[in-house]
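Re: duplicated header lines in exported structure tokens

Our pipeline writes sequence and tokens for each protein into one text file. With two proteins the header for the second block appears twice in some exports. Here is an export where it did not happen, for reference. First protein block:
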Amino acid sequence: MEPGSIAERFRDRSILITGSTGFLAKMLVENILRIQPDVSKLYLLVRAPDAAAAKERLLTEVVGKGLFDDLREQQHGASFHSFIKEKVCPLPGDITHQNFVLGNSEILRLSQDVDIIVNGAATTNFMERYIKCVLAIRVFFRPFKIYLWRYFV
């Protein structure tokens, strides 16, 4: 498959991307907007409590990064922000909750509009595995601890 044909598959398509503030998703968003500016819409799921916070996170943590300098300075110039506003729609939500904490009307709209879904979401809590392990050990060894305490006392 030719690289150009991959970009063509995104023409006039709406894409939902989860984990959009992560490294790989930022790269994907920038590449799609640069290589296929005729994408219909990019819906970016952003962990945020409301639409304003999602928009702010999108502007500072995704579009505001140096990765988008080529789009900002060379391809779109002064019209960059209007291009982003037209092509990118931040969605406040959280993948760890049912329906991403999106309302029923939003879920219905996305189900009718989205052609492609890219799941780039991941947990970045590096202590999570450690905490689960410690809790499992504490629960598992508690009966032995009680037994040993009785034995030595």
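Second protein block, exported in the same file:
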Amino acid sequence: MRLFEVITRTVFAIASIVLMLLAAALIVYAGVQVIVAYRQPDPEVGSTLLEAVGYTVIAIAVFDVGKYLLEEESFRTREMRQAGEARRSMTKFVTTIAVAIFLESLVTVFEASKADISTMIYPTFLLLGGVALLVGLGVYQRLSLTVENEVVSTGEKDKKTARMRKSNG
């Protein structure tokens, strides 16, 4: 069983590092595209900058996924034992993805408004998807916090009962 754990952690570490390197490559690619656009005789800098923002946003999301996998699956020597710890970790992860979705939808709105207004439906759906993700995160937060509080109050009652039995017995 120990060998399987080592192999699993190694695979997650390699996948995480590959994701982080790909994210860095996206950012470098975006920067190179901006430099190339400025060197053109008739620069299309505006659209290139918007594309660079899109690549950078995607790179941040990919990097965060890689970081999350590295921290949670490779470096941790134990599972998350407390519900609060899992909730905070999940919230951070989903929030990063939501920010990436909102920024990408904003970039897509600018691109669609300049090209063809009939394509505005796609960034609108992307924006609605981001809103649904945030609403889902809010529901998750509310439900998990409620369960956490119930578990804590049940644990406190059990401790109080045990103390009363010990003092009476």
